[in-house]
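Why do we bother with holo predictions? Because pocket geometry can differ from the apo form. Keep that in mind while you read this record for zinc ion.
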Amino acid sequence: MLMAGTMLFAISCNDTKKKDSEMDAENTEETMTDSEETMDKKMNNEKKDVSFMLESRSESNATGKVMFQQVNGKVTFEASLSGLAPGTHAIHIHEKADCSAADGASAGGHWNPTFQPHGKWGDSEGYHKGDIGNFEADQDGNGRITMTTDEWCIGCGDSNRDILGKAVIVHQGTDDFTSQPSGAAGARVSCGGIIQ
Ligand SMILES: [Cu+2]
Ligand SMILES: [Zn+2]
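The structure, written out:
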């Protein structure tokens, strides 16, 4: 009886060891997949996109659709708006994905992680990473704007480039590219958080 008991113990002990090592192997595989994903993200070769709606603010009727798409380290931004007053409107990335305030003030100021003055995108005097610029709304109040840059990324974690967690805001007026800190573009008529 004692012998049998010892043998049983030995067998079950071996079993447990085998299961443990199988589980170790599985865990190792998972860890490897994780690190491959991280490498892709660092290389920015992975295709990524984020799209969302813009909602009316400041008692306007302006609404829109925005898409950011990242391909080979470059991000393309595309927005289409309707319900605007005909004419020129400013559009920017602001610092917080919070459009909760009726006037959009909750989204904060222009996204400016590099502490530059407000300006025209690409200006040697400096510009905010959120200074997209102006676009035209036609007689029906519809407008479109697109731009592509390698100064942004989608979810790369680099605080100087990552647009996730910010907001897109359209203004009632025109960005003059010189007034500080935000180009004197007037009320915030449409707002959407850049959230996946
Ligand atoms: Cu703005
Ligand atoms: Zn600005």
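Confidence is low (pLDDT under 50) at residues 5-32.
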